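Hey,
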Amino acid sequence: MKQMAVGLRVAVPSLVIAFLVAACGRADGMPEGSAAVDAPAPEEAVDIAANSEASPEADASSLGTGVNALAPTNAKDSVHAATDGIAADATPAERTFFHFTRPDHIRGLYVNSWSGGSRRRMAALIDLAERTEINTFVIDIKDASGYVSHPSEVPLAQEVGATEDIRIPSMAWLLGQLEAAGIYPVARIVIVKDPVLAAARPELAVQDTAGGVWTDNNGVVWLNPFNKAVWEYHVDLAREVAEMGFPEIQWDYVRFPDAPASALGRAHFPGRNGQPRTTAIREFLAYSRDALADLEVDVTADVFGVTTSATRDVGIGQVWESFIDVVDVALPMVYPSHYWKGSYGVEEPNAYPYEIVRKALRDALERSAALEGAGATRPWLQDFTLGPPRYEAPEVRAQIQAAYDLGIMEWVLWNPGSRYTEDALEPAEGFAAEPLVRVGNQVVPVSRRFELFDTTTVVAQPEEESGSGDGAPGPDGGSTPANDTLPVPGVARPDTVGAGIGRSG
């Protein structure tokens, strides 16, 4: 039986070396290369194109199955209209604050802000959770659009216009629904992808050596992770929702730009003072955990899947040993579709979801075991299709089983439109029949996974290169400085960049 929320309170309280480091586009870059949403749209559009972190090119057929008959038939039944009758958040004195009990093992779904503010979508997602093993929703508080999902009272959010596109009119209503259903809420807050804050406060963004604000090759502005004011703004947002009752703050895009050397050569980071990028990321995470300690919330971070295996910074400031002991949980985005041909010795990574996830998470566990005070590992898993095979129940369940076989009992599924494959999830009453999984590029009963796991097709391991010129290809398919890059096992493919399904975090 699911853990039920208890009481109300009014207190505040992811072996072979792959040379090309491509954009570990997670469902964000896969959110990452996407445009912000400026106006409400029918939920069909919200689930595919209008989602602030989904690309307009994303095809509905790629977004998974299950919980699919949820979209309204006209714009009037859109996200905002779906909250008809739900008042905006009340004043602080009138608010009810909630308390949630953490499940023994978090099994979660990403819920975009549009879905979070829709009665229809939330009813369907809650119903899915009640029928299955799902007990946690990761909800957008601020996504890569820069807009805050709810009517925030954080002064800077109001000052810069971050509250001008509200998707969750009443956070109290949403939390009340989750409490009643016994669903544990996690607050996802995107940091360095914030065009709203950067436009209003350009001094907080990465600067161009030629003057003005720096943009990457896609014209995207990035906030400066060395700037303490950036830290403070996001901690203020986190404190606000923690005081409402969110028991976990999940930082996303807590990193540096994934851009080629040709672009990064123009980037200036005021406040860096010769420090490595890993220092900024570590210090922010430590600062945020300390600043929120009095609220007794967990502080967690989404990281590139490559961090579980790369032993040096690939250019974004994330190295496993530099952050794992200053977070309660790290969530590597180990989407099989995002790995290079040959990663971990697998010919076609996307066709081997069990193998890729298991090998990536194995590396994470081994590295954490060697470090005192390491936080837990909870992977982001893929419930979307990007190339063959189509991801359905066997592909999704294979990833979950891979985590379980390593002793990792927690996971969260990513789908940018918040549509999920119910048949991949264990029913509340248990499986009536043995589930199918894709292992060894075959769909088989889960009990046969070990006989196929050892037969995975491998490719010859390429010779290592020391790097030359501008260095090895970087996370976005460009290159990173040679002195910052080592050959890395298991990294994302360049064709995942901006594909609108995965994100890099």
